[in-house]
Write a structure and sequence with these properties.
The complex is a heterodimer. Chain A is an alpha+beta fold. In chain A, 41% of the residues lie in helices and 21% in strands. Chain A is built from 14 helices and 13 strands. In chain A, the strands form three sheets. Chain A has a five-stranded mixed sheet. Chain A has a four-stranded antiparallel sheet with strand order 9-12-10-11. The chains are: A alpha+beta, B mainly beta. Chains A and B meet through helix 4 and strand 13 of A and strand 1, strand 3 and strand 4 of B.
């Protein structure tokens, strides 16, 4: 049976989430800034047309935004996460064969579905996501994931297609669309491989499709061979349905203002550790190592950083244990004459929660590990049930000074009762 | 069906759109033996359901109060006399019978309004 894949990709996803609850922003340039109001991570079409680049730093563009009536938001990840989950659930009701590729992109395997006309099917799905959830998406359909991704790019950029393109048939039409796709925009090429390919005279997706698999393999290894095969409509990359556990978990934040107060830093470490450890427990993993890094402001002269790594004899996902070890280690090397700008927590060197229970060497204190596990389950449950931060460890609450400014953040419309959108009786 | 008492019942007298509540208890939504779930009662389509806070004091006689929570389902196609949330030119969401809105500016259909009493409302 011939395989068919669809890639459903939300258009300017973060901006679309903001517009859902602020319809007056339709047609106006909108950007969403990374947390801490750093730089543009999502731009509306109008903002792109104004020439605002991806990653544009807010402090450089503040005046420009004002002049051009650009609406700027701080990233509201609770909102985006909720909307993303709604879209995933809707798509999963079409077929269980889904790969959630990122927060705003999912692949569907359509091979087992009975669809007569793929392009029309795409338009139906598009209309349904727009109506049910309120987010515009683009849909690309083809015999391989790489080609579906290419189809999606064309569907998004060519207005005549109305957001859906079917490239399941090989032929002149498909080749024409591929000829319009620059090589650096092909999935898996990017800025690193594209200069190499351009040197070979490969400038578009069509050029790459026509390259011999032999030459592609010489240039880019097995990856290159797969790409050429996939662009010819033959699937090499199956859906990745199984969730791969992460190899490391990092959480970091800038301080509200630069600080040399140890209690502020300690509090930040505790809060970041709480989030990282909760993610670790969600993965059913335990960490053998944790690292804390403090940075001064990179944009100011004399940039420096300190870093401490601790090893856990008994692998752990316990917020309290990790926090106390990290702050203890840091207290030794901490320099109170330096004002720090940012803190990062990295948990790494994981073992699975299950493997701990079969530790035959007896090096692990199973009893205390079990108690800690149960305690953290309750903490996670309470925080899930009553909102993040219901249960915090003492050090977390020491200081809120490090909390980043979120002046531009929209309400958490879908996750906090106090921040619901308002409807006026008329 | 017996008339319902309480805030929702009031709507049947006035003939506004709250008739959507005629089908309110949907026993099929609950599986045998499972405890009753308000979530399942009030939210038929979780992916397309959003909550809004109601502002305004003009609907007391229909049992709708300032601060109530409206359950909005975007999956439903509104019919005449049903309540909808719609986007008003000038920059705010309005809640009113569908007749005052258009297909274009309708945001979603109201499926329930939740009104807390006493302790709960504080």
């Amino acid at each position: 049976m011939k395989s068919v894949y669809a890639l459903i990709d939300c258009n300017n996803f973060f901006v679309s989430c903001e517009r859902l609850f602020r319809p007056e922003l339709e047609g106006r340039p909108v950007v969403v800034l990374s947390s801490n109001d750093g730089c543009a991570v999502s731009r509306s079409q109008e903002a792109k047309e104004l020439g605002i680049p991806m990653g544009a730093p807010h402090f450089k563009f503040r005046d420009f935004f004002q002049q051009h009536d650009v609406a700027a938001f701080s990233a509201n990840f609770e909102l985006y996460g909720d909307i993303s989950e709604r879209i995933t659930n809707l798509l999963a009701s079409i077929t269980p064969h889904i790969e959630v590729y990122s927060v705003d992109e999912s692949f569907l395997d359509l091979s087992e579905l009975d669809i007569d006309h793929y392009q029309a099917w795409g338009h139906t799905i598009r209309a349904s996501v727009l109506r049910h959830i309120g987010i515009p998406v683009s849909i690309g359909i083809a015999g391989s994931k790489t080609l579906a991704k290419a189809a999606n790019d064309r569907a998004k950029k060519l207005p005549d297609l109305n957001g859906s393109l079917d490239l399941t048939e090989q032929g002149d039409m498909t080749d024409q669309y591929l000829a319009g796709l620059p090589i650096q925009d092909v999935w898996g090429i990017g800025w690193r491989l594209s200069p190499k390919l351009r040197a070979e005279g490969v400038h578009t997706a069509l050029d790459l499709k026509r390259m011999s698999v032999h030459r592609a393999q010489q240039l880019m290894g097995i990856h290159g061979r797969q790409m050429v095969t996939e662009l010819n409509g033959e699937a090499c990359l199956p859906l990745t349905r199984e969730h791969k556990p992460q190899a490391m978990i990092m959480r970091g934040r800038q301080f509200g203002e630069d600080t040399n107060e140890f209690y502020v830093i300690e509090s930040a470490i505790a809060s970041l550790t709480a989030r990282a450890a909760a993610a670790l427990r969600g993965e059913r993993q335990l960490a053998r190592q944790a690292t804390v890094t403090l940075h001064t402001n990179r944009h100011k002269p004399g940039y420096r950083r300190v870093s401490e790594t601790v090893h856990f004899y008994t692998p752990t996902a316990d917020t309290g244990t990790i926090t106390s070890q990290l702050t203890g280690a840091l207290a030794v090397t901490y320099n109170s004459r330096v004002a720090y700008h940012r803190a990062d927590i990295l948990l790494h060197d994981f073992v699975s929660e299950n493997s701990l229970q079969t530790d035959l060497l007896g090096t692990v204190d199973l009893d205390s590990s079990q108690r800690s596990h149960q305690k953290m389950q309750v903490v996670d449950w309470l925080n899930r049930r009553h909102g993040k931060g219901t249960i915090t460890f003492a050090a977390e609450a020491l200081s809120q000074a490090w909390q980043p400014r979120k002046q531009l953040m929209s309400p958490r419309y879908t996750s906090t009762w106090d921040e619901l959108p308002v409807a006026h009786l008329r | 069906m017996e008339p319902v008492t309480g805030p929702y019942g009031a709507s049947s007298e006035t003939g506004t759109s709250l008739s959507v509540h005629a089908g309110f208890p949907n026993p099929a939504a609950e599986r045998n033996g499972a405890p009753l779930s308000l979530d399942k009662l009030l939210v038929r389509h979780p992916s397309s359901t959003y909550f809004f806070r109601i502002r305004g004091h003009s609907w007391h006689r229909w049992g709708v109060f300032d601060g109530d929570i409206a359950v909005i389902d975007r999956a439903l196609t509104p019919r005449e006399r049903e309540l909808v949330v719609w986007w008003q030119e000038g920059g705010e969401f309005a809640l009113s019978p569908f007749e005052r809105a258009t297909r274009q500016n309708t945001w979603g259909t109201v499926t329930a309004i939740i009104h807390p009493f006493g302790e709960m409302s504080r």
